[in-house]
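Handout, tutorial session.
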Amino acid sequence: MVFALCGVWLLFTVFPVYWTVVTAFKSPPAVFDGPTYVPWYDFTPSLRGVREVLSGERGDVLRPLLNSTLIGFTATALATLLGSMAAYALVRFEMRIRLVAALVFVAAGIGGYLGLDHAGWSDGGAMGGALLVALATSVPANRIPFPGKVFANADIAFWFISQRMFPPIVSAFALYLLYARLGRDGFQLLDTFWGMTLCYTAFVLPVVVWLMRDFFRSLPVAVEEAALVDDVPRWRIFLEIVLPMSRGGLVATFLISLGFVWNEFLFALILTSSKWQTMPIMISGQNSVRGTEWWSISAAALVAILPMMIATWFIARMMRSGIALGGLK
């Protein structure tokens, strides 16, 4: 019974991919004459859609594909590195952040920005200075035993994942305004590689922290304690012991995060215009004055799907062969 249900679910999840693939190789009559499913039986395959996409007749495809690849892999690598550090700290160290210190950070940040902006600083300089002021006031304030709520590790971890609960349009619009203000000071981030990379790093960072936190929890502490007894620095323990033991988790987290970044549409729509548009934006613009040409749209979607399928297959082979799996020796 379980295998039957799994088989039904497999068909349910694989069919959209199959439908995209077969539609990419259909001619216009085969698309509009009704549903056809089996090549050479229901319809004669045609390369028209693929030819239209690859020849540039439907617009430049290679550039958005390259943009998605560069931005996706760079942002995911940064998020995996930074998120792993944060997750490890949440698992191995006791965090205590007082509510009063958090309020001091917010008040000092806003007040510092307004004061520096009034003093004639540029937007970028005022933001950086306000951050330094907020840290310089809130860190000492956190050491004072003020009454009130104290946030522990579980609260901080929930705060990370709660960032994904906000409607994306709120963050996208605020980020657009921030990038526009910084652009007036000479820091061009709209429609740039680093603007999209930093955006997607922050976008996927909560997912990395949440996933890697569970992987680090499952690691034996005895190995790290033995290294501490031998006076090994914490940074070496993390880089040379913890990360190699967590390779399987790192690979899985990287792949899941890459999927989020690769398929993201809203931020790319708002923060890019032409130069650094990604594959989802290119596919969304495939409609023409002749109507919805599903054979070309499916061919473009197939081009977007293939890199992720190849990456999944390659990493799955690595994990099965044991190359990507860590362990104790």
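The second record follows below. Compare its token runs with those of the first.
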Amino acid sequence: MTNLLKKLLQEKKPVFGAQLRFGSAAIAELFAVAGFDCIILDGEHAPQSPEGIQHQLQAAACTQTTAIVRLGKNDPDLIRLYLDMGAMGVLLPFINTAEDAKLGVSACRYPPRGIRGWGPARASRYGFDSQNFAERSNEQIMFIPMIETAEAIENIDSILAVDGIDTFILGPVDLTISLGIPFEFKNPKFIAAVDKVLKAAKRAGVSPGGAVYEDFFEKASIERQIQLGFQFLLVGGDEWILAHGCKQLLNNISNFRK
């Protein structure tokens, strides 16, 4: 088993991912074949079912793309379920303390490094690759915390000091809300928080990640995030790209409707 996302992060190369909410195996396959380094199957903000997520994992398995499942809470039972299905990691919201991070990391790893129970099913190719999986899983599976509150910013050094965290995603919208400045991405409070996180990541040797909150169809938006120091970027996804395409097309035909 090889985790492309982890490999690229270790090589200090930029990594680009997309978030998928529609729950379609065909869409997951399309994004993977298109060449995204990583797809995030969003089970936090979309009505995804375990069966649907497994179908998407299967669809992406014919490619090198790393499939990560985004969960709504830091629950070891849920983490185990989706890792056993074959997800290469989990993305967890509102990781506000080192204790939160330790719980998530532990749930992703087998003893003695963690608390994950054995039963990988599809993840070990239904038992045909159990030994290789057992030997490599603890190193390849990723726990990715989301940093998106004022409390997390306050505790950022202790969170990133937790062994087993390779990267994180800074959630810009929830962070501005937590800071009391909703959607004010140019506010000095938000800029200072981002700077604090990036400096902490550098000290900890952790690859910083975030979401492109400006127009991700504009190359300059992506360049700005990379220049700030982000290595792992989420650049849209199925809902966003479809909505953008609809708006653009309707704008092009608007004159013909008058």
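Points raised in discussion: Residues 208 and 230 are 5 Å apart (CA to CA).
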